[in-house]
Design goal:
The complex is a heterodimer of chains A (109) and B (477). Chain A has 109 residues and is mainly alpha-helical. Chain A has helices spanning 7-11, 13-40, 50-80, 96-108. Chain A is built from 4 helices and no strands. Chain A starts with 6 loop residues before the first helix and ends with a helix. Chain B folds into 2 domains: 26-229, Rossmann fold; 237-475, Rossmann fold. In chain B, 36% of the residues lie in helices and 22% in strands. Chain B has helices at residues 30-38, 61-71, 86-92, 97-102, 113-125, 137-141, 146-163, 178-182, 258-264, 283-299, 314-325, 327-333, 342-347, 356-373, 385-391, 396-411, 428-434; strands spanning 50-54, 77-81, 104-107, 131-135, 166-171, 185-194, 197-207, 216-220, 227-229, 272-277, 303-307, 334-336, 379-384, 416-422, 437-444, 447-454, 459-463, 472-475. A 9-stranded mixed sheet of chain B has the order 3-2-4-5-1-6-7-8-9. Chain B has a 9-stranded mixed sheet with strand order 12-11-13-14-10-15-16-17-18, sandwiched between helices. In chain B, a hairpin with a 6-residue loop joins strand 8 and strand 9 (227-229). In chain B, helix 10 crosses helix 11 (314-325). The chains are: A mainly alpha (109), B alpha/beta (477). The interface between A and B is medium-sized, with 16 and 23 residues.
Chain lengths: 109, 477
């Protein structure tokens, strides 16, 4: 697993998202923590559905922990897509599922 | 005299008192469980979900952790062992076998960090597990590089915080590590040495949201259980129990206390016992050694003479003795001779500047008189050297001369002598060398401790658990 964005990953949103989940979690939880969380959530192979992923993270880490992890994932994803980080405004309500969907839509254009 | 191990019939502070820790309600909170075990229940005002127990090998970390695990309640705790298998742990700490059996024991010696973290997430998922012990945490964490270790620790803190479970990390790493900054509380267990005797202390370095009245406490692992000692509590003399007479132990007189008899084996007739104490020892603790032999002597129809410690309240002493031994016995067979009180000097027809020899004469005459009243013609003499030193500060040589004369004379009789000797006494070494037995009292971390030098005994914590006049002694192991 790699946490630095590559050109090929940005072409493939699914791959980018999967890598961003790994990269974002890794930044906070470390490799062991990330592997444990993904194993615990049974998401080691499959691309997580953002809404379901959010729900499960919430159960494991609570609201505060979840928002930190999701911000790290989105930040990593945006870096992989080589976009500006404007999407991540701290003051706005952070809706992980909506942001991921929005990034996905923009990436297709 | 032979030192004997005392049998503890009543633990000093029960950490597993029924109704205190189990069930639901406020006592079921994680912070309350930790605080109860550490004796800080009343001071907790914020959650303590994570605790680090530090200390070198053999200091008692695992026992403390298991006590906290036990407090979680049956089936509500998990013990993750990165050191020893279950069978070996049960052999090491047999008193905790039941606790180990009642909780989840997970052998993680061959597991990596990912598996352990996943395991913890599974354990806390349904919120049934209330306490998880990682013993030892460094056994696992040392396999990781520093950054990875910190992140794994942060993961655990987040899981603990969200699940409401309590995580106890056991560590043998002496210095501060990353986890020190993340946990809510840090307790260190230390094995120290006092007067060639080993004792244990636990030091509270941090306990978030808790007013810590005292940072260091003495504890013992007697019978494999963690028992800590709070500061010495002055007994309530209004709750005097009926004194139960203790017969002679063979040729020796009883101390009037089972605990003292077990420790020193009784008082040999004709012998002198010195009780050395420092300035920190509270008077009621000394009274717990001073009064039981007098009460027992009086209750057996024998006589006693008491030269009280300076500052002692004679009326109070008399009242305690009268309650325990009866007014008649006290009036007839006890003489409290306060050498610092002018009235006693007047009563004894002593000149204002009485010499040690003159005081000695009074004691000798009183001893002779009381011997006649005594059932077996013996008299117990309990004397404060400090009181005599204060009176004869300018003539200590004469005092020493008279005292040594008394000790020699006593050896020929069936009387017994107990001398209370301050540690800083200028005639200390001479008195101790003349005494046939000798014990020392001192205070550490607020706890009154006692040990025998002649004969050599272990070290014991002195409390009043059963009767205010009688000492309860718990061995420090």
């Amino acid at each position: 697993m790699s946490s630095s964005p590559t050109a090929s990953e940005t072409d493939d949103f699914a791959a980018a998202f999967t890598n961003a989940v790994h990269g974002g979690l890794d930044k906070i939880l470390g490799q062991s923590g990330t592997a444990a969380v993904l194993s615990h959530l049974k998401m080691t192979d499959n691309l997580p559905d953002p809404a379901e992923f959010h729900k499960q993270l919430l159960a494991l880490f609570g609201a505060k922990g979840t928002i930190s992890l999701e911000r790290a994932i989105v930040k990593d994803l945006i870096r992989r897509l080589k976009w500006a980080l404007d999407l991540l405004s701290v003051d706005d309500t952070f809706d992980f599922s909506a942001i991921v969907r929005s990034i996905q839509t923009k990436a297709k254009k | 005299m032979t030192a004997k191990k005392r049998k503890v019939t009543k633990p000093p502070i029960r950490v597993d008192a029924p109704g205190e820790l189990r069930g639901t309600g406020p006592s079921d909170l994680a912070e309350t469980r930790i605080a109860t075990v550490l004796g800080l229940k009343q001071f907790i005002s914020a959650p303590i979900g994570t605790l680090l127990i530090k200390g070198l090998a053999g200091t008692g970390k695992t026992t403390v952790a298991l006590e906290i695990l036990k407090a979680a309640g049956e089936g509500k705790g998990a013990y993750l062992s990165s050191r020893v298998p279950k069978e070996l742990l049960e052999t090491h700490i047999p008193a905790m076998k039941k606790t180990i059996e009642q909780q989840d024991f997970l052998d993680i010696r061959l597991e990596d960090m990912t598996s352990v973290l996943d395991l913890v997430m599974q354990l806390t998922k349904d919120k049934k597990v209330k306490t998880i012990v990682f013993d030892s945490w460094d056994g696992l964490a040392k396999e990781l590089d520093p950054k990875e270790r910190l992140r794994a620790e942060k993961t655990l803190m987040a899981v603990a915080n969200n699940s409401g479970a309590q995580f106890i990390f056991v560590s043998e790493e002496p210095g501060a590590t990353t986890i020190d900054y993340l946990v809510d509380g840090i307790v260190e267990v230390v094995r120290a040495e006092e007067h060639d005797r080993a004792l244990r202390e636990f030091i509270i370095h941090k306990l978030r949201g808790t007013k810590i009245p005292q940072h260091k406490y003495i504890f013992t692992l007697l019978e494999g259980k963690f028992t800590f000692f709070g500061p010495y509590a002055i007994p309530d003399y209004s709750k005097l129990n009926r004194f139960v007479q203790r017969p002679d132990i063979g040729e020796s007189y009883s101390f009037g206390s089972g605990a003292l008899d077990r420790l020193f084996g009784g008082i040999i007739p004709g012998s002198t016992m010195a009780i050395e104490y420092d300035e920190h020892v509270p008077y009621p603790a000394l009274r717990a050694i001073e009064l039981p032999p007098i009460i027992n002597f009086l209750s057996m129809g024998r006589s006693a003479i008491l030269l009280p410690l300076p500052g002692a309240n004679d009326e109070r002493t008399r009242s305690i003795l009268a309650k325990s031994s009866g007014e008649t016995a006290v009036n007839k067979r006890l003489r409290i001779l306060n050498v610092l009180r002018t009235s006693d000097i007047k009563t004894a027809d002593l000149p204002k500047n009485a010499t040690p020899k003159e005081i000695h004469e009074i004691v000798t005459n009183e001893t002779a008189r009381l011997r006649e009243e005594s059932a077996n013609k013996s008299v117990l003499l309990v004397k404060s050297i400090s009181a005599l030193e204060n009176l004869f500060a300018s003539d200590l040589d004469s005092l020493l001369e008279v005292t040594s004369q008394e000790i020699i004379t006593l050896q020929q009789s069936h009387d017994a002598d107990i001398l209370f000797l301050p540690k800083d006494s200028p005639i200390r070494s001479r008195i101790l060398s003349m005494s046939s037995s000798y014990a020392t009292l001192f205070v550490k971390d607020g706890t009154v401790l006692i040990y025998g030098v002649k004969p050599h005994t272990g070290i014991y914590a002195l409390q009043h658990l059963e009767d205010p006049t009688s000492p309860s002694l718990t061995q420090l192991v």
